[in-house]
Design goal:
The two termini are 76 Å apart. The protein has 27 helices and 25 strands. The protein is α/β, with parallel strands linked by helices and 756 residues long. The strands form six sheets. Strands 18, 19, 20, 21, 22, 23, 24 and 25 form an eight-stranded mixed beta sheet that branches.
């Protein structure tokens, strides 16, 4: 009993894959209610509970689960997961546009070329950015954020420590605008002889008091502590609206996908450029898996990183267009300006570079080289639109590994056909992919590669196991049945060895059974040399076997000159009755060929056979002793078929079928009623029919007329109109049947006269 609950649970999962969970759930409830008194109904569950198979499924699934889990923990799948993420990002996020409250101005190749004559080679004079700010501020943007570092002066200070006119122009423009954000770096240096006096320096007090986030609680998870920094020149940061961290760290494959939204330096916290406008002055709580910014929650991974939900439809401005428009504005030409400052009203304007020489192009999920400022702008748009992407959760991944490992193994083991064993893991993988893309489109990521690997490993391991074990089982099946069934049926049987094992154990199946016997065989065998008897039987059986195999029948045994065959097992055939009758008709027609071949062998014989067929439930299974088993069928259905074959000579009919077979034919075979007979084992008399045999259209017409005539005659006979029945039976071409019923009618009429 202690294993039964576990086995039922496994069966529940497996059956759930095949939409059988209702029955299993009902049996689980019964087991819980009845405890030790529970009577386990194997048949009702639709699957054989095979403890050995269940343990094998659990073993393979568990092995696949543990292997994938170890590889997952070791980071083996990371690069593959990144590839899957990047592909999904291209499909899902390229059509997405960032918030219209974001504007991007790029220093592109066209800008470098256009300003080369006036500004010279890169880097440009800082006074140029002062002109840029003059133009932008006329549009009254919400903020202007430079993705450009100015940690040093462009020109040396004078003897009094004053800035050059070029540096001072940028400082003045920043001060006048009041909305400019500048960039800083917080980095981690490895200590050496040259920098050991530079690392772990304290930040200037005035810098911390102005720009460090004021209300931060909690500690950022993971690593990320910095020990060095690069700040804008003091005059510049002192007039800036804010200063934020600029650098990104790539993933291990070199692609930039994530950032730490809050950076810490010696206890002080600073925002990054992408979220600086949204964090300043806000209460911030750092949790294990999120960064809470008042009413917003930014999901974080285990290392405290945020996976940026990138966009693909940026429409940047070229800074050369800004300067061209500024030149027109200064000349009083406001008509044909390329860019109107009003376009930037209330927008957050990011200024970055895309020119190759500026060296701010980064590989991102959107492409091999994208401007780094796009990452900042994407983060800002995530905040504006509340469009945050939640990273995969390890607990969900482990649950997926467990479920899909079991699904891959169970689906492969319990599927009956090779195509299903391929289809079920493929369907599980397709469902995983659909769930991955659906989750991504709704801003929730799951790990894809580790669960996919769980499917591959568990189903692959199951296939390997089955190849080793089922190969031996199929060979045994082929040896057992190769002489009983056709190669086609044998192939179907070995495709479904689970069903075959069930049949071998014994089961009730709906089948049709045929018995065939050679007429006057005893007389022939008594007068014929043994070698000719054997030659005759072998020739006859060869042709009869061909007819049976052609209709997917199974030969049970040869009994002297008789044949016992059945249809509907071991392979289920819904039309088994039609196949059995079709085989019987073919067998009867093949007698001409058999007699001709016997004549060529010097055996002159007009061979005739009688056939009886019945349909119904019978027990199918391996029956015999430990040393000798026979896969056979037994029961009343078989007994009635045998007795019908013995009646052929009484009615002069080559093929007699029962009413149970007749009803399953649905009128597809021309038959005529013969009689209602009382047979041993049946409480009620059974109607029997003759399956009509004809060779051509003329024969079919005659057979149809004779069938109709016989049916009318029998109906009159059963009504008690013996005189009319006798007249009709006198016109029946079958002399044996005609003689039988005319005699019966005469006897019945005489009894009527006597009683009068």
């Amino acid at each position: 009993m202690k294993y039964l609950y576990a086995i039922l649970s496994i069966n529940y999962v497996v059956n759930l894959l095949f939409f059988r969970s209702v029955t299993i759930f009902r049996e689980l409830k019964r087991f819980i209610s009845h405890g030790k008194n529970y009577n386990y109904p194997k048949k009702s569950l639709g699957l054989i509970v095979d403890k050995k198979k269940a343990v094998t499924v659990l073993g393979i699934a568990g092995g696949a689960f543990l292997l994938v889990l170890l590889l997952f923990q070791a980071g083996f799948f990371n690069k593959f997961e990144y590839l899957a993420y990047d592909q999904a990002a291209k499909w899902i996020r390229i059509p997405k546009a960032p918030s219209d409250q974001i504007a991007i101005i790029l220093i592109d190749e066209a800008s470098l070329a256009a300003l080369n004559s006036s500004a010279g080679r890169w880097p440009w004079p800082r006074a140029l950015y002062a002109d840029f700010l003059e133009f932008i501020m006329k549009g009254k943007p919400r903020a202007v954020i430079f993705d450009i570092l100015w940690p040093e002066t462009r020109f040396p200070r004078d003897a009094k420590g004053n800035l050059s006119a070029d540096d001072d122009a940028l400082v003045d423009a920043t001060a006048q605008s009041g909305r400019v954000y500048h960039a800083m770096q917080l980095i981690t240096d490895i200590e050496d002889e040259k920098n050991k006096t530079l690392i772990n320096r304290p930040l200037p007090d005035d810098f911390i008091s102005r720009f460090a986030l004021k209300e931060v609680s909690g500690t950022m998870p993971g690593t990320g502590g910095s020990n060095n920094y690069y700040l804008p020149i003091p005059e510049l940061y002192r007039v800036a609206h804010n200063v934020a961290v600029v650098e990104f760290a790539p993933d291990e494959d070199g692609v930039y996908r994530r950032t730490r939204p809050v950076r810490e330096y010696r206890g002080a916290h600073f925002p990054v450029l992408g979220d600086a406008p949204f964090l300043e002055g806000k209460r911030i709580t750092i949790n294990k898996n999120s960064l809470a910014v008042e009413n917003l929650s930014v999901p974080l991974d285990a290392d405290g990183n945020y996976l940026i939900n990138v966009y693909g439809k940026f429409k940047p401005y070229s800074i050369s267009g800004i300067f061209a428009s500024l030149a027109k504005m200064r000349n009083g030409d406001f008509e044909d300006m390329m860019i109107d400052p009003a376009e930037f009203k209330d927008k957050i304007v990011y200024v970055g570079a895309s020119a190759v020489g500026v060296e701010d192009m980064k590989p991102t999920p959107m492409g091999a080289l994208s401007p780094g400022v796009y990452l900042h702008a994407s983060l800002a748009s995530n905040f504006i639109l509340n469009d945050f992407l939640a990273p995969p959760r390890p607990g969900v991944t482990v649950a997926l590994l467990l479920c899909l490992s079991l699904a891959g193994a169970a689906g492969t083991f319990y599927a009956h056909f090779f195509s299903l064993r391929i289809a079920i893991p493929a369907a599980a993988a397709a469902a995983l992919a659909a769930g991955y893309f659906y989750g991504f489109s709704h801003n929730q990521l799951i790990d894809f590669i580790p669960p996919f690997a769980a499917i591959v490993f568990s189903s692959g391991g199951s296939f390997a196991y089955l190849l080793l074990t089922e190969g031996r089982e199929k060979a045994r099946v082929r040896r057992m049945f190769s002489q009983y069934v056709s190669p086609e049926v044998l192939a179907m049987m070995t495709e479904s060895s689970t069903d075959l094992a069930r049949l071998g154990a014994g089961t009730n199946e709906d089948i049709s059974v045929l018995f065939s016997d050679i007429r006057s065989f005893t007389t022939f065998s008594d007068k014929t040399p043994p070698e000719q008897v054997v030659a005759m039987l072998n020739t006859h059986f060869n042709y009869m076997t061909e007819a049976i195999f052609r209709t997917r029948g199974t030969i049970d045994k040869f009994i002297g000159d008789a044949i016992m065959a059945y249809w509907g097992a071991p392979v289920k055939l819904p039309d088994h009755a039609l196949r059995a009758v079709t085989a019987a008709i073919d067998m009867t027609k093949l007698l001409t060929t058999v007699n001709a071949e016997l004549a060529r062998k010097g055996i002159i014989l007009d061979l005739k056979i009688g056939i009886g067929i019945n349909s119904g439930e019978a027990i199918v299974g391996n029956i015999g002793s430990e040393k000798k088993l026979n896969f056979t069928v037994i029961g009343d259905t078989v007994n009635l078929a045998s007795r019908l074959e013995a009646l052929n000579k009484n009615y002069g009919a080559p093929i007699i079928i029962s009413e149970f077979t007749y009803r399953k034919l649905d009128g597809k075979v021309l038959c005529r009623i013969l009689d209602r007979v009382k047979v041993r084992g049946k409480a009620e008399p059974v109607l029997i029919y003759e399956a009509m045999v004809f060779d051509d259209e003329a024969g079919q017409k005659t057979a149809g007329e004779q069938a109709a005539l016989t049916d009318r005659a029998f109906a009159l006979y059963e009504k008690g109109d013996y005189l009319s029945a006798s007249k009709l039976y006198n016109t029946v071409q079958n002399a044996t049947l005609r003689g039988l019923f005319t005699a019966r009618c005469k006897e019945a009429l005489e009894k009527q006269e006597t009683s009068l």
